[in-house]
Specification:
- By secondary structure, this protein is α/β, with parallel strands linked by helices.
- The protein folds into 2 domains: 2-239, P-loop containing nucleotide triphosphate hydrolases (Rossmann fold), CATH 3.40.50; 249-359, Alpha-Beta Plaits (2-Layer Sandwich).
- It is built from 13 helices and 14 strands.
- The chain has helices spanning 21-30, 63-70, 92-95, 115-126, 130-144, 159-171, 189-206, 217-223, 241-248, 264-270, 296-306, 319-329, 351-359, and strands at 2-17, 33-48, 52-57, 78-83, 99-103, 177-181, 209-213, 226-231, 234-240, 251-258, 277-280, 285-291, 309-315, 344-346.
- It has a 6-stranded mixed β-sheet, with helices on both faces. The protein has a 5-stranded antiparallel β-sheet with strand order 11-12-10-13-14, covered by helices on one side. A 3-stranded antiparallel β-sheet has the order 2-1-4, with helices on one face.
- It is globular and about 75 Å long.
Length: 361
């Protein structure tokens, strides 16, 4: 079943033109001029229940406008839109019980009262039974370690503490869909990791559908298997994150540290017949660039069998560079990303450590 169904969704705004100078300001007082701005341009996508989907784009691409239409805050200019079978702006009273929303730069908590009092007010807003509310609250407080914060006024919380409280506030009524708009903005690495782990666990245990907008691509890599990329109000990519890397990264770089002095001629001889290239960094260190058309394991196997190796490091695809290249081209069909240059990982680590490393920021 579909959690979100969007087809040909469009949103236009009527924006006042401001004329220059004092004379222009006087004219604007009596005769205003307007222009039409199309923020979202006939986008279409579907999100099945239980999926975590990343919704990314540059500032002004239309991400927040889309989220506001999906949550019923804005009315679409045209197009088809259903969330959990509801049309958000038409069925708002029934619909809000099905969703949770966190806006990273806006709070749903009351600034001058204790956190627990905000939670109790939200219980009444969503009409959650007392016993269900207490059970749900105790569970969330334990998982996000908020026990010491419940009686503090919101204004006395740090940003990381407040964002954890915002998550609890959005989940008190047990929504099936969670919309997150920049939930980790301004947070340190430790708090970001805690929030990512919590969201992943909640999705696995409760099947909560999550639509996440963020500028931090490490959030996307840690949580999402699918990404929708928006540029100038249009969808330019909708698919798997791994597919995005495979299609638009040029390959991988492997750094070898040798036991003895090595020459480029010898290295080229070891990999003869493979479409790879070598860069000598010093007398005992060299980098091998392996395009996607060439098997990494075959290339590494030849080098390992042909020379004494002390250490090997693989430089994974730099997702930031790939996405930047797609934005610059305006289309995922024509984008060309630069060669990966970060995300260093050692193949001497165990597979368990590797999984933890990939999940961490």
């Amino acid at each position: 079943m579909l959690a979100i169904d969007v087809k040909d969704l469009r949103k236009e705004f009527r924006v006042q033109k401001n004329r220059e100078g004092l004379g222009g300001a006087m004219k604007d007082l009596f005769r205003r001029e307007y222009r039409e701005v199309r923020a979202v341009k006939d986008i279409s996508f579907q999100i099945p229940k239980g999926e975590i989907c990343g919704y990314i784009g540059e500032n002004g691409a239309g991400k927040s406008t889309t989220i506001k239409m999906l949550t019923g805050i804005l009315v679409p200019t045209s197009g088809h839109l259903q969330v959990n079978g509801y049309v958000p702006h038409k069925d708002r009273e029934k619909f809000v019980n099905e969703i949770g929303v966190v806006f990273g730069q806006r709070s749903q908590l009351w600034w001058d009262i204790g956190v627990i009092e905000s939670f109790r007010l939200l219980r009444k807003v969503y009409r959650v039974p007392e016993t269900e509310f207490k059970k749900r609250l105790d569970n969330l407080v334990e998982r996000l370690q908020l026990g010491d914060l419940l009686n503090r006024p919101v204004r006395k919380l740090s940003l990381g503490q407040r964002m954890r409280c915002e998550l609890v506030a959005s989940l008190l009524h047990n929504p099936s869909i969670l919309f997150l708009d920049e939930p980790t903005i301004g947070l340190d690495i430790v708090v970001k990791t805690e929030i990512r782990d919590f969201l992943m666990q909640m999705n696995k245990e409760e099947g909560t559908t999550i639509l996440l907008t963020t500028h931090d691509l490490q959030d996307i890599e840690a949580l999402c298997s699918r990404v929708i990329m928006l540029d100038d109000g249009k969808v330019i990519y909708d698919g798997g994150l791994n597919e995005l890397k495979t299609r638009w990264s040029k390959g991988r770089e492997i750094q070898f540290q040798f036991g003895n002095h090595i020459s480029l001629d010898k290295l080229r001889g070891v990999t003869a017949g493979l479409e790879v290239s070598w860069t000598l960094e010093n007398e005992v260190t060299a980098k091998l660039f392996v395009p996607h058309e060439v098997s990494v394991s075959e290339a590494m196997g030849r080098v390992v069998s042909g020379a004494e190796i002390r250490d090997i490091k693989i430089f994974e695809t730099n997702t930031d560079e790939i996405v930047r290249g797609i934005y610059q081209s305006g289309s995922a069909e024509t984008a060309e990303a630069g060669r990966p240059a970060s995300g260093e990982a050692s193949i001497k680590e165990t597979s368990d450590n590797k999984e933890k490393e990939l999940a961490a920021p």
